[in-house]
Design goal:
The chain is of the alpha+beta class and 410 residues long. It has 14 helices and ten strands. Helix 5 (138-150) packs across helix 8 and helix 12 (362-374) runs antiparallel to helix 13 (380-393).
């Protein structure tokens, strides 16, 4: 046999005999691991093929999971069977959204998907990114590890004694790991556990008081990226979102800072051992990039050039003045008075259209979110128009899809 320069005729058997075994334990996510932390890479090995962990990554043609209008992400798929599962999932994503009046949330009918059929080498991060438009961070995966260690049989209920249930993305992770959670009860996209006042930027990850509607969510300015910070939505009756940390460790510790339970001690010890940052800084840093305050309390961030002043222009009403105008429009008993107030709102919307044409989409995003926070169905068509255009101009197409579903549910 012809040999290339520098090669040596080493047999397969000899190579196997001389291979030095790797003493490190195998990462539970195998080749599908998304973690980039150097300490994690040193601590665990990530074999390309390991029958002890999971199947190797499927390689083959690229298949689009959803319509191009929803996402431009691609993943590798290998067979027509996987292709068929994905197509069926697409059809389910477009299922009718209905409003749950008792819970104050929206959800899809018959829209559950058996995730274990999708990419056996994937730890669930790809599915989460596709269905919830958020990228799971290292801290999020560490938090999931804690929940798995705390309650292996039902990790989503690991914080039950604190009155917390993990939902949304974590239910997907549980399904992919084939935990004992009924597949039919697992949400598969960001419309599940979405409350009436939730802006598209919020993804619910912890459900608390279902009667009051309090929940914890990721707040992500731009879809398909890691969350900017964690927010608490105290109840379903208003739009206020309260920043409570950079990661879920910080959030849970802040909400239960007076607790000396064994679970809280375990959580703090786990975070310390894993070198998880417990000092919140993300929201403070983000404040430097906020171009406008909004009714929900955390403001908006859009690309803005301070030299050319392109990207955002302020409304010609203060928040107080805008709240007064909207209140007068919704409470007016006289048709003429209501029409007068709506005419003033239309003047603002016309200004937004000029701003959009001149490269300032932030103005429409601000007004649209403020109308969403007002909550009155009188403004549904205005919200839909303002936010779909703003998200499209800001290259946040996924949030455009979310607001369309949300307004259809009102």
């Amino acid at each position: 046999m012809k040999q290339t320069k520098g090669s040596s005729p080493v047999s397969k058997e000899t190579a196997e005999e001389t291979e030095v075994p790797d003493p490190r334990p195998v990462c539970k996510y195998g080749a599908g691991c998304y973690r980039k932390n150097p300490d994690h890479q040193k601590q665990y090995k990530h074999p390309r093929e390991s029958s002890d962990v999971m199947s190797p990554p499927l390689m083959g043609k690229k298949v689009k999971l959803e319509d191009s209008n929803d996402s431009d992400l691609f993943i590798e798929a290998a067979s027509e069977e996987i292709d068929l599962v994905i197509k069926e999932a697409d059809a389910q994503v477009l299922a009718t959204v209905e409003q749950d009046d008792t819970e104050g949330t929206t959800h899809h009918n018959k829209a559950c998907i058996k995730y274990e059929q999708l990419l056996p080498s994937d730890n669930g991060c790809t599915v989460v990114k596709k269905r919830f438009f958020v990228e799971l961070s290292e801290a999020c995966l560490q938090f999931w590890d804690f929940c798995l260690e705390t309650n292996k049989d039902s990790p989503c209920s690991a914080l039950k004694e604190l009155g917390m249930e993990l939902v949304g993305p974590f239910q997907v992770l549980a399904a992919v790991k084939k935990e004992k959670i009924p597949i039919d009860e697992i949400s598969h996209n960001c419309m599940e556990h979405r409350y009436y006042f939730d802006p598209p930027e919020v993804t619910t990850v912890i459900q608390m008081d279902t009667l009051k509607g309090s929940h914890v969510g990721y707040y992500t300015d731009h879809p398909l990226t890691q969350p900017n910070f964690i927010v608490l939505c105290p109840n379903k009756e208003n739009c206020v979102v309260k920043p409570i940390g950079d990661n879920l460790f910080q959030a849970v510790i802040q909400m239960h800072q007076n607790s000396d339970s064994a679970l809280m001690k375990s959580l703090k010890e786990f975070a310390t051992n894993r070198k998880i940052d417990l000092v919140p800084t993300a929201f403070k840093h983000r404040q430097k990039r906020v171009v406008a305050d909004t009714f929900h309390g955390v403001g908006i961030v859009v690309p803005y050039d301070p030299v050319t002043e392109l990207g955002y222009r302020p409304l010609n009403l203060t928040n107080t003045q805008l709240k007064t105008l909207l209140s007068q429009a919704t409470t007016a008993t006289d048709g003429k008075k209501r029409a007068d107030k709506l005419d003033k709102l239309q003047e603002l919307i016309t200004c937004v259209q000029f701003a959009n044409d001149e490269g300032d989409p932030g103005m429409g995003l601000e007004l649209g979110l403020d109308l969403l926070c007002n909550g009155n169905k009188l403004f549904t068509s205005n919200i839909l128009h303002l936010l779909t255009v703003a998200y499209e101009l800001l290259d946040r197409e996924q949030y455009k899809w979310v607001i369309e579903q949300q307004m259809n549910a009102r």
